Structures are given as C-alpha cells and as structure tokens.
Amino acid sequence: xxxxxxxxxxxxxxxHHYDANTVPVLSIFNWVYNHGRYLRQSIDSxxxxxxxxxxxxxxHDDASTDGGAEIIRDYERxxxxxxxxxLHSVNQHSQGKCLVxxxxxxxxxxxxxxxxxxxxxxxxxxxxxxxxxLLADSSACGCFHAADDVNEISDVSTPxxxxxPGRRSGYGIDDLFKVGNFTTTASVVYRVSCLPPxxxxxxxxxxxxxxxxxxxxxxxxxxxxxxxxxxxRRHPGGIHTSTYGVVSxxxxxxxxxxxxxxxxLQHHPGYLDSVRWRLSEAMEAQSYQRSELESLRAQxxxxxxxxxxxxxxxxxx
Length: 317
Hints:
This protein is α/β, with parallel strands linked by helices. The chain is 37% helix and 19% strand. Strands 2, 4, 5, 6, 7, 8, 9, 10, 11 and 12 form a ten-stranded mixed β-sheet that branches. Strands 1-3 form a two-stranded antiparallel sheet. α1 runs parallel beside α2 (68-78) and α7 (245-263) runs antiparallel to α8. The longest helix has 43 residues, at 271-313. It starts with 10 loop residues before the first strand and ends with a helix. The relative contact order is 0.12.
C-alpha cells in the first residue's frame, strides 16, 4: 500500500505531518488577489479541515499589493510540507492570462477543492464528506454544497442563501443551461480526471470557473449536499460583487456564451433558451437602472432649481 493510499487518523490539517514521499489524495487551490483583510480567516478555515487522507494546499497569489504574499509565506514557515504556493511578482490577470490555467499543472491529488482568499469554509468536515461521496460514486464529476451569503456592501447576510433549485442529490449539464451556475466556487470539489487535459480552451476566457464547471459536467453529474459548509463574501473590492444589475446580468450572459463556444456546446437543446433568458434578464436590469437614473436626474434637477432660487433671493456679503 502506497503512502497516498494509506488512511490517516482523522486530524485537522494543521496537525497532519507528511514526509517527502506522501502523495496527497486532495489538492486545495486558493486564488488570492488583495485579500489581505480576509486571507487569514480563509487559510485558517482550510487548516481546520479534518481528514483521514493526505492533503496539499496551493495558494495562488496574483501579485497582491496589500501584504498578502507575506501572510502566505508566514503559513509556509509555520506548516512546512503542507503548502506548495505560487506567488507572482507580476499580475497575471492584467496581462489577460487565465488564472484557472495553473490549476492543471500544480495539483497532485485525485480531487481538487477550490476557494478564494475572501471566502471561507464553515464546517471542519466539509472535505472529508465530499471526498467520501465521490469515492462512493465514480460516475460523479464533483460535489458541492450550500453556502451562506456574507454581504459587507449592504451589511445584510443571508444564511443558506446559495442553494440550487430543487435541492436534489445531483445536478447535470442540463441544469447549468436551465438555471445558470448553481455552485459557489468555495463549495466545489472536482474529480481531477474530469478536468480538462489541457487549458488551451481557457486562453482569453473571462469566466474560467464557469467554464471549468461546464467542462466537468460533460463527464458526469455534480453531487449535492444540502448543508451549509462555506461562506461566499461580497465586499466592495470583490471581482464579482462590486457590480450589479445590468453589468452582472451581462457578465452571466458572457460566461454562458463564451463557455458554450469553448466547449462546443452551442447545439445543446437548452442553449438557446438559456441565452434568451439571460438576455431578457439583462434587458430588464437595463430598463430598471435607466428608470433609477431618470429618477435621480429629476431629483438633481429639482435640487439645482431650489439652489438657484435661493441664490437669487440671498445677498452674499
């Protein structure tokens, strides 16, 4: 029995000690860019995971300017042998490079868990439960679960907000066209054999995580655990949470169209209906925001007229 096949005692990752010959069963991939404010909470939630299998942690920092690299190096020093990080000195996203691409070259495990530096896991048994399900069902491409929505923009958080419609035990490619992306990144564990053999299709793709899900679903269903085990954080600096309305709707439409084109899925029976739905959503959002702007314009005009009237009747000494 190889080291990678041996079951370990169920301990938190911070308590596991691996030798140089240990091959991980699961690789954790954490994307980071200027998440310094949240990064320790994100990494600590990873280290609190309790597993009976070996794990490696790969933190991918895209040249953060807020001290994120120093935080990551601190964890490397404190937990030798657990981290295999990628710390860029030049921002890759600004050069048009897809940040999903390094995913294939780095992980050594049979499974990959994803998260971002501003999100965090809330259940210490998350990874163990997901891997156990995937080991029991070889037809599944991955496993995801429900998540809380932590909104720092509105200061209103919603427990269990991120749940797929129907709360079924599994979801497939048809569901992706019917309802859009039904996962949050930090909730997913993929089977590595269901990931692309290369990431050539990802070059120039804006929504790499959506394309990753779309590709995996062509290999089998995604299992679902109807229990909250992570938190999705919205904050002003977030890539996907700093926009709303028509911009958000157009991003979803863009992800769908570019993903289907990259995967040659434009002929899927649900594709055109999905495009129409997303386009209608964007048009409705545009109409709503236009009325909002018109209302604001009218209010500004009213205030301006009041101010002009006040100036005309008031002498300035």
